[in-house]
Amino acid sequence: MSAPDATNADQPAGAAPPTEELSERAKTVMDMFDLAGAPLKAIVARLVRHDGEAVELAEDDKLVKLGRSKDLPVTCRVDHPKLSSYHCEVHVTPATWVIEIVDTSTNGTFVNGARLEKGKRHELQPGDTISLLNPLHAEGDDAAKRSTEFLFQRLKAVAKEEQMVEELTCGICRQLFYRACTVLPCLHCFCGQHKINNLVEQLIASKPELKRPDDEIKECDSLNTIPPTGKMLKKRPRDDEDWNNSDEDEDEDEDDEDDEVVAPLQFGMQGPMAFHFAGGYFGAASMPPTSCVQCTTPAADGYVCPPHAIHIRCFSCKTAMPERPLCGIPQRCEMCSTPFCDLYFGGCKNPAGVGYLQAVKDHDMNALPARLFNGNTVEQSILSSYLAVAGTSVQTAWTECLQKFADGTWSHDIPNGPTGLSQVVCKPCCLRVFSGLLYHYRRAIPRDALPANVTNRPNCWYGKECRTQYKNVTHAQNYNHACPQEKRKE
Fold first, then answer.
1. 3-class secondary-structure state, position 66
2. Which of 25, 36, 230, 379 could form a disulfide with 373 if both were Cys (CB 3.0 to 4.6 A apart)?
3. Contacts of residue 404, Cβ cutoff 8 Å, sequence gap at least 6
4. Listed residue (286, 333, 335) closest to 343, CA to CA
5. Helix H or strand E encompassing 357
6. What pTM, to 2 d.p., does this model score?
7. At a CB cut-off of 8 Å and minimum separation 6, what does 201 contact?
């Protein structure tokens, strides 16, 4: 494997790259892989210090303070006489994972050598260098730099606000969820419904215009029959008559389905036209018929939907469009066949859908896939910390993966996956491709670039196919799963 590129492609324009000294000293961050330690938290980003300590920023951490106060956690405490007790604050927005830093000190906080305005939030970007002392005054004082300088490393990409709005919007009434509840028979229901409601509250706080009207909220409360403690749903009892006639009723239902006729819609002066939707993706059958713009207005190539034309809906914005597999413009992902209108119409009504469907080589990757290594958080952290130590951004790793895939060195090992960089896929499918290529990236890392407690682990017999690695953290810590499967069922 070629040497990792020290240039961080995720840095903002004009930002100073992390110093070579910081990258060298940050190698001790691998000490975080104490394989006998507790399970890893859902980490969004890290502040990696020269002395090897890493301040982890989790999804639920709203505020993390740095300074020399003894009331702070050990990892957030920086013992230097020129620092304030509470020198700066790091804010994590749970809904979007945006991370901002605020200077609250007397002598100032510096990002990439520039002093922050006191009390004003500054959004951190991957590769930013945070200095709690003036870098000019700390020149030559290695001990001060080791303890007061941090490298910001992001592990999860920032979620766009438009994407959060779409995820938290009801697909029926197109309003934000209100007092969401879950019906899965699982102990995580309580956590799930409260997490959704908390995200909705945070989203409304940032965008008050999305809040439902007061009269609608009052109506929802009056119709809600589920108490805060939950409601037990039981199966409706069936009497003898219903039981005896069940087979006859099923036959009648099947006949009704066969005789079902799609109701025609009127489109201007063209007369009635039956509007059908193609199946094969989630939500196709449940969406009501809606007019297509090209049923009445010709497309750029002069195409007008003929009577009884097959239509599909954009998975992102639910806009209807004709099914035209031979038009030369991709309408579906070539892996999962999910339809998107961005390329066909030259834009999607949902901002989150713009750029969702494009060629493999045109996708950008600014964070490691969530399902990397089948969800094995230990292997994920080993790779992410190696990238931080080497000064390699996720986008740089993605570029190298594409080069190896193009020349046939690496394969994503997906049966129906793309065979070339020009094939058009959606973002989730591209993340699957990236996960498959990162497996080879991880195996190509030299052993001397990883700590001994990582390389000394024996290989798991089932390798990357192990089904225990993502649910048993101790097993994931004690065995290497970045390897092929050796043992199989007889």
1. strand
2. 379
3. 410, 437, 440, 441
4. 333
5. strand 357-359
6. 0.50
7. none
